[in-house]
Amino acid sequence: MFFGTCGFESHPRYITMKKLDLHGIKHIDSKQLILNFIEKNIDNLPVEIITGNSLEMQNIAKKIIKSFNLKHSYPNFKNLGSLIITEDY
Questions:
Q1: Dist. CA 29–CA 35, nearest whole Å
Q2: Phi, psi (rounded to 5 degrees) for 76
Q3: Does pTM top 0.85 for this prediction?
Q4: Is the dihedral of CA 30, 32, 33, 37 positive or negative?
Q5: Band of the pLDDT at 66, cuts 50, 70, 90?
Q6: Which helix (H) or strand (E) holds 73?
Q7: What is the dihedral of CA 76, 81, 82, 83, to 10 degrees?
Q8: pLDDT band at 78 (very low <50, low <70, confident <90, very high)
Q9: Which residues pair with 60 in a beta bridge?
Q10: 41 and 31 in contact (C-beta within 8 Å)?
Q11: C-beta neighbour count of 41 within 10 angstroms
């Protein structure tokens, strides 16, 4: 029997999920912002990091997420410019 959910929208924390929007932020500045954001919200996962369509920004975020031993996924298949950060189970 499966008791999971069909997506993040059904998760109770999704509505109040903390978000970091990196639009307009330089890549060099984004590293520290992402680190601070994850450290501040590590006990309140899931959180969302909005990277936009920049592959370099996405790679920066993914590398930092991995360094915290966390998992990332996309909110849906149409929005690849946003990462949902959760615990790595």
A1: 11
A2: -165, 170
A3: no
A4: positive
A5: very high
A6: strand 70-73
A7: 90
A8: confident
A9: none
A10: no
A11: 16
- Spatial CB neighbours of 22, under 8 Å, sequence gap ≥ 6: 30, 33, 34, 49, 50, 51, 52, 57, 61
Long-range (24+ apart) CB contacts under 8 A made by 36-39 are 38/64, 38/65, 38/68, 38/70, 38/85
Domain boundaries of the chain, sorted by first residue: 22-78
3-state secondary structure of 16: coil
pLDDT digits (tens, 9 = 90+) for 3-48: 444 555 555 555 678 999 999 999 999 999 999 999 999 999 999 9
From 13, 88, 12, 82, select the one nearest 52 (Cα to Cα): 82
The residue assigned the tokens 């959910």 is 5
Angle subtended by helix axes 55-67 and 27-41, to nearest 10: 40
